[in-house]
Design a protein that fits this description.
single chain; 424 residues; alpha/beta; Rossmann fold; 7-stranded parallel β-sheet; binds adenosine monophosphate
């Protein structure tokens, strides 16, 4: 299928062509016709599938059938995203795809000054991209009028719920006109998501694109077994030996992200950390330095990295496995995107074997496991519960761990794995 077959008009097709896209991705090919038909939609699609253009292109098309009168802009489309980074990225996409249309769009999120956002809203906006907290702030200051919204997009709805935004979302929805088109994107379908869909969507078209974890052959996934305490040193060794120049590394906690970043700097590997405690300015700078190749390693926590779009990212490393198996899928989805082959490597210690089993069960794959000479795990070290930082919950108490199905290995059992010592 070609974009020309999707009933998009010339200004949009021109912007797409300038981006170098030759054909719609599967989610775009499926979603765009439904959205242009005015249907509500529930789409199961993750970042990396082209979902942003999947809703932005038809949104621009629909809005363009009724162009704004000179200087008379009002909010006609509202896109809610869970994180600032995702909001910024969606905002950039709206500008890119809409560059030949006379719409005004703006992005609002917390962590930065509110006044420039109030001014942008005063100047008139057709398309508003926002995170829920700051949007509610601006609503309470009467800086936002949602009474004429025609299209409402809830992006990464599962993550919104994970982050506790459900009440905020409901407050926002209560302010929207009853007559509107709703599009909901979610990578997973929990009962909570189903409930949310039932309360928002009317007779939705359902679009589901293959999850990257089960379909993507573009990501080479593997595990290196190592002692917890030696992970940072092993990572430094791998980066050095393999001469990796752009590596995204995940940690479970902000503290660990900082610690690792400092360690890498110390051994002369340029690095920056992004997480919720960093100011928006610091996060944006870290990301742009990383994209520009000025820092080799970006260390991120799950929430900070959600939705990050880095073209052709070759390596994703899990310094620590996530305690929620689905997060593994989100993490590795940062690589192997838009046709590039990527590598997702997890450094796993004895404490994490239970998490690893949960992940393998979810992705229905037995990951290749190996060790690296000089970094072999010490078989006498026993597994200890993992503290998740926020309140000291151990693994056993972690309600959201999806990896509690099998017994935790009592001690390191690396020898039972299919090892290939010379792999690296
Ligand atoms: P998303 O899933 O929206 O985060 O998009 C992932 C990446 O795919 C972004 O870098 C987009 O620029 C890119 N992209 C979106 N649509 C297409 C397309 N039809 N062809 C090639 N790349 C695309």
């Amino acid at each position: 299928m070609l974009f020309e077959e999707l009933n998009l008009s010339t200004p949009i097709l021109k912007a797409i062509a300038e981006e170098g896209y030759t054909k719609p991705t599967p989610v775009q090919a499926q979603a765009i016709p439904y959205i242009l038909d005015g249907r509500d939609m529930l789409a199961g699609a993750q970042t990396g599938t082209g979902k942003t253009a999947g809703f932005t292109l038809p949104m621009l098309e629909i809005l363009s059938h009724n162009l704004p009168q000179a200087k008379r802009h009002h909010i006609r489309a509202l896109i809610l995203t869970p994180t600032r980074e995702l909001a910024a990225q969606v905002g950039a996409s709206v500008k890119t795809y809409g560059k030949y249309l006379p719409f005004k769009s703006t992005v609002i999120f917390g962590g930065v000054g509110i006044n420039p956002q109030i001014n942008a809203l005063k100047n008139g906006v057709d398309i508003l991209i926002a995170t829920p907290g700051r949007l509610l702030d601006l609503i309470s200051q009467k800086a936002v009028d949602l009474s004429r919204v025609e299209m409402f997009v809830l992006d990464e709805a599962d993550r919104m719920l994970d982050m506790g935004f459900i009440r905020d979302i409901r407050k926002v929805i209560a302010l929207l006109p009853k007559q509107r088109q709703n599009l909901l994107f979610s990578a997973t379908y929990s009962d909570e998501i189903k409930k949310l869909c039932e309360s928002i969507l009317r007779n939705p078209a359902i679009v589901e694109v293959a999850r990257r974890n089960t379909s993507s052959e573009l990501i080479k996934q593997s595990v290196i077994l190592v002692d917890c305490k030696r992970k940072s040193a092993l990572l430094g060794h791998l980066i050095d030996q393999n001469k990796w120049t752009q590596v995204l590394v995940f940690t479970r906690t902000k503290h660990q992200a900082n610690k690792l970043s400092e360690y890498l700097q110390k051994i002369n590997i340029t690095s920056a950390a992004i997480h919720g405690n960093k100011s928006q300015g610091a996060r944006t700078k870290a990301l742009s330095d990383f994209k520009a190749g000025n820092v080799r390693v970006l260390v991120a926590t799950d929430i900070a990295a959600r939705g990050l779009d880095i073209d052709g990212l070759p390596h994703v490393i899990n310094l620590e496995l996530p305690n929620i198996a689905e997060d593994y899928v989100h993490r590795i989805g940062r690589t192997g995107r838009a046709g590039n082959v990527g590598e997702a490597l997890s450094l796993v210690c004895v404490d994490e074997y239970e998490y690893l089993r949960g992940i393998e069960k979810l992705i229905k794959l037995n990951l290749d496991k190996s060790t690296v000479d000089g970094f072999e795990p010490d078989p006498s070290i026993k597994a200890e519960p993992i503290s998740l930082g926020g309140g000291g919950r151990g693994r056993g108490n972690n309600q959201r761990s999806r990896s509690s199905n099998g017994p935790a290995p009592k001690k390191r059992n690396g020898n039972t794995h299919n090892r290939d010592k010379n792999r690296r």
